[in-house]
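Morning run. Coffee first, then this:
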Amino acid sequence: EVKVDRLRGRIGNYGEINPMAVEAYDEMKERHDTISKQRDDIVEAKSTLIKTIKEIETTATVQFLNAF
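And here it is:
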């Protein structure tokens, strides 16, 4: 009984509980996941672009040297 009273006191110290907190958390998590995926896509696209630019530079150099 003492333990129950102590736990009730602790619960009372928490104050009001936001019933929308779980929904807000879920929305923020979904937004975070979406932004993280977009970031990963951008990082991958950057890597692909850098690789493509290097290939173009190599091809252009070879063609230039072969032409002259």
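Helices lie at 2-13, 21-67. Good start to the day.
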